[in-house]
Amino acid sequence: MKKFLLWGSFASCGRFAIGLLLTVIICFGQETEQKELSTALAGAGNSPLEFARVLEQHLAKYPMSAQRDELERTLVKAAIEANDKRRILIWGEKSLAKNMDQPQVLERVTRILLESDDKDRSERALKYATHYGESLKGILKDEPKNPRQKAEFIEQYDRAVGRSLTFQARAKGNLGKTDEAIALAIRSFETYPSHESAREAGKWLAKAGKGVEAARRYADAFVAPDSPA
Description:
Elements: H1 2-42, H2 48-61, H3 68-82, H4 85-98, H5 103-113, H6 119-136, H7 147-174, H8 178-191, H9 195-207, H10 211-223
């Protein structure tokens, strides 16, 4: 019995020692990882593209990093700053798979996906654009009380909602749902008159064989407040 108790104590101590050793190894590994990352980032300078490249290489070396989610979000921000569409799409979608409530990432990823009329890309874009529009409702609670600030806030909100509807229209049209695309594009222009929404409405109206209405919408694009003309 005494021998058993001694063995039990030894076994307990052994398990404790192994657990402690694992903790030390993990902490040491994280410390080493942090030092490597700090050194690499210092060499990246002020270039967002180099910053993104460093983070990408770091995640390839440390795929199980405890800070992976945060590093992915930071990488996406750097890619957006550098306007690196390839990385925005790759890492943006990885980040969105874990957390969809990132309006800026949703907007950029959706726009890039819709540069093509590919069906798979359009389906993904529609999902993101729809969530982007729904997520905007939550910011209404932050509406300022100051009249001037409130007016600016509402304008920015309407612009974002209109952008979401335009994206949904483009995705729907690419998926062959022309009537829905027309309705969404017109609704977008009514929410916030922009040359993008007007042109989107004109495009799908023309596709539906409604030339006169399409011409009117294209004309709206030239006189929209944000028209580049």
